[in-house]
Amino acid sequence: MTFYEVTFYxxxxxxxxxxxxxxxxxxxxxxxxFLVLTLLSVALIFLQLQAEFMAxxxxxxxxxxxxxxxxxxxxxxxxxxxxxxAPYNRQRWIAGFAAxxxxxxxxxxxxxxxxxxxxxxxxxxxxxxxxxxIGRALFQNYILPFEVASLLLLVAMVGAVLMAKQR
Amino acid sequence: xxxxYVPILMFGVIAFLFPVVTLWFASLLRPDSRxxxxxxxxxxxxxxxxxxxxxxxxxxxxxxxxxxxxxDVETIFLFPWAVQYKALxxxxxxxxxxxxxxxxxxYIWLYKKGALEWV
Amino acid sequence: xxxxxEILDQPLVLALIRVLIVFTALSLIVAYLxxxxxxxxxxxxxxxxxMRVGPHGLLQPIADGLKLLLKEDIIPEGADRxxxxxxxxxxVLASFTAFSLIPFADNxxxxxxxxxxxxxxxxxxxxVLGIILGGWASNSHYPLLGALRSTAQLVSYExxxxxxxxxxxLLAGTLSMNGIVKAQLQQxxxxxxxxxxxxxxxxxxxxxxxxxxxxxxPEAESELVAGFHTEYSGFRFSLFFLxxxxxxxxxxxxxxxxxxxxxxxxxxxxxxxxxxxxxxxxVFGAAGTWCFLRFFRFPTGREWFWQRLMLFALGxxxxxxxxxxxxxxxxxxSQGAFWFLAKVFLFLYAFIWFRGTFxxxxxxxLMRLGWHFMIPLAIVNVIFCGVGLVxxxxxxxxxxxxxxxxxxxxxxxxxxxxxERS
Lengths: 167, 119, 422
Description:
The structure holds three protein chains of three kinds.
Chain A: H1 3-24, H2 28-48, H3 52-76, H4 79-84, H5 92-112, H6 130-141, H7 143-164
Helix pairs in contact in A: 1-2, 2-3, 6-7
Chain B: H1 6-29, H2 60-83, H3 85-113
Helix pairs in contact in B: 2-3
Chain C: H1 2-9, H2 11-44, H3 60-69, H4 81-97, H5 116-137, H6 141-172, H7 177-187, H8 191-194, H9 196-209, H10 221-224, H11 235-259, H12 279-297, H13 305-325, H14 328-357, H15 363-394, H16 399-417
Helix pairs in contact in C: 2-11, 2-14, 4-5, 4-11, 5-6, 6-9, 6-15, 9-11, 9-15, 11-14, 12-13, 15-16
């Protein structure tokens, strides 16, 4: 077990456990904290894959921005009503059966394709720093998606304000 | 070189354990907290508090948070551009001007619409 | 003995030693920053500040720390115990961990990564979570409102901060903190002189990010009692306090590294200013002289004995340090850290000076300043800086001239943004 394998398994277990705790926790703020832990584990997995820019962006945007947004919304909404609602409804047996079928399908596909995803490890010199690669790719090969991203941000701005200020 | 990041993790663990260990250590030295009178009620300038604190607080916090997310994503796009600026040259400047231009148009719309007013 | 040396030779052990050195030094700096703030504010307000505990109150932080440690730990009724306990730990983690990426000297930093600056921003943005969780966990109106307002303020000024940092990255061409300082060494000029508007924006945003006066409404006593840390008492409060002062030192360090040349001395490439390398000797010598002068003017008498002794010991220590620094290898080794700390202390003095001077911004005025003035100005500054750099590369203009023109254009836009609206 190399260092990388150990850290990967530890991070994967932490991410999965926190994700399960997100959906099973009663208290919304506790769920938010476990979601932060999940996102942090994913960021550390990015770091392990030598995608350092993505790891930093994950922390800055997801944890520093989106989780703050989630926490604001949790505090703006009256919590008592939400916490006292029954968490399950009457269709849970059918839903459970459908989830099991989906799980069986996924396991089958992953098992059949397990050899396809194995890549040879890259030589240490072949991997350039992540930020420079992204900079070059984004602004030379993928200009159009980049500009379309700015349009998406504009749409998000306008949509959020229009929906929030319905007066 | 992920091994460069291990010292950060070490520092983080030490910084996280410092409050935990100190609080535990101080709990051995501290006087016990007894439930006397109004001591454990939340503080409201001497008036007994009424009602739970989880009320409704207005939608302007939400607008600020969502605008922050959008502008944060914008600054994230600017970081690789700034690092590679010498290599991208004039072409890179024009691309980024288009990107920032679209977002400035959005900003002006927000300003006119009054979404940036706090009251 | 050889096994000890072998153990010390492992890279991780060396890193751990550096981590411990930086952590202890930081804790000492933060503790004495609290003392320095009380003394400086006192002198601004024509009074003396702490004078009793130790000579001129120099042992006050230790007394305060012990007092807070031994106080009763009150958790308000109905508070969420787990989150109440977690919030100060997150804030301390966020403020302290970012120091692992800051270069204090040419060869002294805990670690240096390619995307150092981005990680510093990432780690310090975790602190916002600590504030909002601390305010919510207290189950009380004042902390919750204080936390929401504080978070809204932090979040608004973080955008302006990021844009100001991007202006510096345009000049440096790298995100690694050590690389940015080396870029300033190569170009021979601190970035603050090439991008003064970005420096100004960074400074103002840094004050807003750390909830300092004039932007300290969320924790001002006359407004919200104490904001999000109203219900925290004893050592938990001191953790929030430590984290806030550590954040102050952090944003000062970032500003110094990016705009004021980090560990470089003033005019690093100018040879005839080499006599500036004796500055540490002068500083320690002046400190020793002050201590000895005070020692001779101290009132004599039995009850003042220990304070006189401490003052004498301090003076002797400072004089010994000054003499030791005259030895050339020590002088060379201490240059980087000395200049870095000197600039950071200058910044911290400015923070304290502002606290004693300015009235407080009302919250809507604060948000208006952030969204209507700072963010547009920062975006315009990035655009003009980019234009200036391209002009100097493509058309061959002098770089300083084109950046000066860019700053001039940004100042015109700033004047227009700050106009009086009828």
